[in-house]
């Protein structure tokens, strides 16, 4: 009988250059006392006495992906002691923009080249629909350790379920991720700056997590304006506008959702009339308007470029993924950075709220694994979600998603971004988009449109939204997801 996992209270770039500062991501923490509970007697296991080689496919240059393999010797010790078999792992990788194609090219041949894959959350449909990955409902039923109390329903909806709302489980959270506001604490606490700000705006600059939690974009704009000083090669704010992978889309979604808009109706696949509303066109204009507070070249900012402008001291604040916290807070910046919730937006209704894009990746298991490799993959999942493993993952810079780990008294103090990660992971503050198998085609059209507008190639926000909505409606209608064909007005749309 299929059942859904429990929830708490009821994630191109080549993220390649992503990490030009590779040293900043090489967080290796030495283990002190071993956290593996060694058993005096091994449990009976079908792989006892065997040696198995496994392969994980993940994201090149992305710390959380590599941690799965960097921590694998701990898993090898665990299964050797508990089950009596030997296992080794190799890590295959690709830049984020190429990862899906690398996985698909292998899986379409029913290959066991990659036994476990770190997938982007939006790829669940594209991997599940052809029958390439293992549905996990029965696995969870047979492995109580995987029936986990997750921190929020958002975790389940983002990393585990396809189709949305179905209860069919295809992934388990590998790395949770949310968007956070990284600010220069040392600039913020400079008393001369605070006095100058108060004199100019008759207001106090925020200091604490709680201050930023209450902050609206209107209030934050004064701070961004205050620190925008081109003569000093300083600017107030950076966010992602790049056409690469999903960068502009994730950044613009923050404006669209927080101001009351929607991308589509997932129940019937309707995009036309949902995405291209006048209100959403105004949100696109607002998104572009914030370029005035960014450094030159801001329309090319993606993850790597956002890291660069912040760590080089060019900007006061930037919205960035919590997963790249280790790269954002270099040795030189330790103690000088505050990681806080990003500002609330005020929409046409007058209500101020924040709904930002989810990032992060789930584990998925190759359905074509032979019996031995499938058993190791499931053993690995059981081990990955043990409390000691999840805690070690967090200590090395990862973001686990289980309620038990995130509820620890010391969790907020493990990494500077942990408190904000928890805050934004709560239901209603972050959300994912499209798990539909046509995700990549939908995204390509959207990135094309948003990039054209922010770079000035297109000047009419409403026309851009109409173009995207019509193209996406056609994609979903052709695939059978959308019930209605694009409306007649779509014959006249263009960028």
From TrEMBL:
<dbReference type="InterPro" id="IPR006311">
    <property type="entry name" value="TAT_signal"/>
</dbReference>
<comment type="similarity">
    <text>Belongs to the bacterial solute-binding protein 1 family.</text>
</comment>
<dbReference type="InterPro" id="IPR006059">
    <property type="entry name" value="SBP"/>
</dbReference>
<keyword id="KW-0574">Periplasm</keyword>
<keyword id="KW-0813">Transport</keyword>
<protein>
    <submittedName>
        <fullName>Extracellular solute-binding protein</fullName>
    </submittedName>
</protein>
<dbReference type="Pfam" id="PF01547">
    <property type="entry name" value="SBP_bac_1"/>
</dbReference>
<dbReference type="InterPro" id="IPR050490">
    <property type="entry name" value="Bact_solute-bd_prot1"/>
</dbReference>
<keyword id="KW-0732">Signal</keyword>
